[in-house]
Automatic annotation (TrEMBL):
Pfam families: FCD (PF07729), GntR (PF00392). GO terms for molecular function: DNA binding. This is DNA-binding GntR family transcriptional regulator. It comes from Aquamicrobium terrae. SUPFAM superfamilies: GntR ligand-binding domain-like, Winged helix' DNA-binding domain. PANTHER family: TRANSCRIPTIONAL REGULATOR, GNTR FAMILY, TRANSCRIPTIONAL REGULATORY PROTEIN. Residues 19-86 form the HTH gntR-type domain.
Length: 232
């Protein structure tokens, strides 16, 4: 629960408090949507949300505006606020953009990645391979964190603040809405092989190959996710 902001006679102080409260509420609502606590496609009631989180309408509307900017909700005069639906069409649009942006990130990382960042990326790749080696064929695997770490590391190494913001703050959270339902060891092993190829190209400081390998990797993931969404 978020505590209501303390009233004050100073507009400047009040503005700071409200901004902080709206930020906290934005974070809580974002996580509630991404974790499925607030279902996809559900209508958002401002009075109920204000009551649940113990906040006034001002901070709540600021938080909802930010959720709309991040494309987690839609708002209209006729239908109010509603959490987005996870559709194959939206997923396809998302991965089209992701393929271009992550290709650029891999290209830039091949040129700009530092020695310590290469070591961190190597550790991520090797840990993912080691985790896969210890899994049993019949066991469902969930190595999503290793996958996210790999892509975050490359994005950060691009040294492009705009690109980092687009990927890490906007695109990656949206991808969490489309968790694959057909996850298995074979698919994870394929992903690990593709990660290794991207890593090798970055270590070789070959931006052309790094971009090509990353774009192929994203295109492959795109096909799997769309299939899972349609038939899973």
């Amino acid at each position: 629960m978020i505590h209501q902001e303390t009233k004050t006679s100073s507009p400047e102080v009040s503005g700071v408090a409200r901004g902080t409260l709206a930020e906290q509420l934005f974070d809580q609502l974002t996580e509630a949507i991404l974790q499925g606590e607030i279902p996809l496609g559900s209508k958002l009631s401002e009075p109920l949300l204000a009551q649940k989180y113990n906040v006034s309408r001002g901070p709540l509307r600021e938080a909802l505006h930010r959720l709309q900017e991040r494309r987690l909700i839609t708002r209209s005069a006729n239908h109010g606020a509603r959490v987005i639906e996870a559709t194959p069409e939206r997923l396809n649009e998302l991965f089209e953009v992701r393929e271009m942006l992550e290709g650029l990130a891999a290209r830039s990382a091949a040129v700009n990645m530092t020695g310590s960042e290469r070591e961190a990326l190597r550790t991520i790749v090797e840990n993912q391979e080691a985790q896969l080696a210890g899994l049993q064929p019949e066991v469902h695997t969930a190595l999503g964190a290793a996958d996210r770490d790999f892509h975050f590391q490359i994005a950060q190494a691009s040294r492009n603040p705009l690109l980092i913001g687009l990927l890490c703050a906007e695109l990656y959270p949206l991808l969490r809405l489309y968790r694959s339902r057909n996850d298995n060891i074979a698919l994870r092993e394929r992903s690990a092989v593709e990660h290794r190829r991207i890593y090798d190209a970055i270590i070789d400081k070959d931006p052309d190959v790094a971009e090509m390998m990353m774009r192929r990797h994203i295109a492959s993931a795109r096909a799997r996710r769309i299939e899972a969404l349609r038939y899973g």
